[in-house]
Please model this.
Amino acid sequence: MSKACYVGVSGTARKVKKIYVGVNGTARKVKKAYVGVGGVARLWWAEAGVSCYGTADSPLSTARWELAAAALSSRAIFGGGRTSSSGSSSSAVVNGYNASLSLSTASSALSTARYQLAAGASGSYVVFAGGRTGSSAVSTTANAYNSSLSRSSANALGTARGKLAAAVSGSYVLFAGGESGSLGAYSAVDAYSGRTKQSMSATLSTARSGLAGATTGGYALFAGGGVYSNYVTTPSDAVEAFSGLTKVSMTAKLGTARYNLAGAAVGDRAVFAGGCGTSGGVYYNAVDAFNGTTKVSGVSALSTARSELAGTAVGGFAVFAGGYTGSASAAADIYDASLTKQSLNLPLSTARRGLAAAAVGAYALFGGGYGSSVSGVVDVYTA
Model:
């Protein structure tokens, strides 16, 4: 459902920018307008900016967390995930939402059920790669889906790993870092053009897992992450850039070393938010942004320090939602393309961590996660 309103002027549709209503003889500005659909109030118009649409009418077909998501122009696609609050029970289900928020389920699920996988879009495919298949088992499997949710084979990763990150550079989606079944970190980077793996020799300079990826100025940036050794995870402040299949020199770093952070691209900026410190227990509200390989200063911190959040962008705004602060969080923080934090209180409908996010049309979707239980809820923001 659109949030825009048009009126006919001399045979031309003109977009309404402001609406007023008379209250006791005074013109009052309408900030949001709703219409009833099936007994539910649905937003149909709002002032410029981000608004909370509510939850999608149809949740994910299988409740899960530590899933992955990415989008093509006509569909946001969610795949995999863990179906239990603890242990390694995982899902192979792939769900898609179109620009009308209608839910579809792929007839061909992931070839291997897994969680802590990564997803990214290249050409006409979303590629789901890697992930855990058990508490001490990781996968090289990659599956590609088109906008019709038809599955195609894709070349396997060169190294089996979970907790890797994805980012796009030009026509390529890159999958970087990750951890082994015994939690050791990797520096491997695999690149795909569509569903075809490309020859690539460049790697991360520092092996790490729980990192985040985002795109800026044609570069794929990978930031943060951690290295597990002797029961301690040491966080990293590294940020590394790739232009296509080539690694690019970059000296800028995160202001605070951290892992389990989230990335999103808005305008020409890559934004990395939140994360945690050594072996968890220390959570950060730090936000770092980069324009190409140059760091951008003065970005306001998150409202709540947290890790295991998700981020995506819609309509010129980056949205970071959910996470973990010792308990699940419903917090949502929104930044415009100039990196100005918006003064909005638009929390998720339910607090949860380990959710995934992707945008389609005018909507940013935050699906799944774990709060008081494993969730299939999909919260929707519109801009």
About this structure: The chain has a mean pLDDT of 93. The longest strand covers residues 40-46. Residues 85 and 373 are 7 Å apart (CA to CA).
